[in-house]
UniProtKB/TrEMBL annotation:
Coiled coil: none annotated. Belongs to the LysR transcriptional regulatory family. Residues 4-61 form the HTH lysR-type domain. The keyword Metal-binding does not apply. It comes from the Bacteria. It comes from Amycolatopsis regifaucium. This is LysR family transcriptional regulator. InterPro entries: LysR_HTH_N, LysR_subst-bd, WH-like_DNA-bd_sf, WH_DNA-bd_sf. Keywords: DNA-binding, Transcription, Transcription regulation. One of its GO terms (molecular function) is transcription cis-regulatory region binding.
Length: 302
């Protein structure tokens, strides 16, 4: 016994429903002799007589009606499988998983996502907000489709594209002695001063340490380690100590004089903000569209 092909099973079901090989053949768009030949092939494969052929016409035998009932269930299950596969494919096409470091997630990524959603209202997008190391690792492991990081260093196992630039600034509360300082701070003075810093793995923390090392002054000396830019900003406003933080995070506080920006000479606190994804993988669909939006949205200085 061999398995009948699906087209022959559909023909058998239609013969049962319509009561005629001719009508079933017409429904399928095939000639009646071809339909009769297919049914004969099914009979040979199953070892059963399915069609009672007489001069007055053809009708299914009792065995034929039983087989037709089972065939109907098989075809219904197959249709369910195909519909489910299509739903899963559509769902995957309409999903985008993104991880972003905190500065990017707070100030830039929401605008890019909003523009993407306006062009694709049915898109489901999940955004995980974390530090740069974790965002890079999620992208490297394929747990997200696209990551956005602030880290200045190499990104092994990842492809990267610059999407913006940023600059870190030294800020203090208005009550801090540096708030009234007239000459710039040196790299050495900054390096020996305890700072409110982000946790290890943060792109901001890595940028500060890298910039100070390049200036020959060594890494930052932590006063407090906090897990978000908002926590760092609030600690500085409260007078805990100075911090080097993205100008995006403190622009409003500096404008409102809650914080004072202090100049530092001989240290380059500029950095690139980058999109990352697994090396060797070609971005497609919503991930490629989001990257294109981010690149197009770069400021003139970015």
């Amino acid at each position: 016994m061999t398995t009948p092909d699906l087209d022959s099973l559909r023909l058998l079901v239609l013969v049962d429903e319509l009561g005629s090989i001719g009508q079933a053949a017409a429904r399928l768009g095939i000639a009646q002799p071809s339909a009769s030949k297919r049914l004969s092939t099914v009979e040979r494969r199953l070892g059963l007589v399915l069609v009672d052929r007489t001069r007055r016409g053809s009708a299914l035998t009792p065995d034929g009606r039983v087989i037709a009932g089972w065939a109907h269930r098989v075809l219904a299950e197959l249709d369910g499988l195909l519909d489910g596969a299509e739903a899963l494919r559509t769902q995957h096409e309409a999903q985008l998983r993104v991880a972003a470091s905190m500065t990017l997630a707070e100030h830039l990524v929401p605008g890019w996502i909003g523009e993407l959603k306006r062009g694709n209202p049915g898109l489901y997008l999940g955004l995980e907000v974390t530090n740069s190391d974790q965002a890079a690792e999620l992208a490297r492991e394929g747990k997200v489709d696209l990551g956005f990081v602030e880290s200045p260093g190499a990104l092994p196992g990842l492809s990267a594209k610059r999407v913006a630039t940023d600059r870190l600034v030294l800020v203090v509360a208005g009550s801090h002695p540096w708030a009234r300082r007239r000459r710039p701070l040196t790299a050495a003075e900054l390096a020996v001063t305890p700072l409110v810093v982000r946790e290890p793995g943060s792109g901001t923390r890595e940028t500060v340490d890298t910039a100070l090392r390049k200036a020959g002054a060594g890494p930052a000396k932590p006063l407090l380690e906090l897990g978000s830019a908002s926590a760092v900003r609030n600690a500085v406003v409260a007078g805990a100590g100075p911090a080097v933080i993205s100008e995006l995070d403190v622009a409003r506080d500096v404008a409102d004089r809650r914080l004072v920006q202090v100049a530092v000479e001989g240290v380059d606190f500029g950095r690139e903000l980058r999109a990352v994804w697994p090396a060797g993988r070609r971005l497609a669909g919503p991930a490629a569209a989001l990257l294109a939006l981010a690149v197009r949205s770069r400021s003139p200085r970015g």
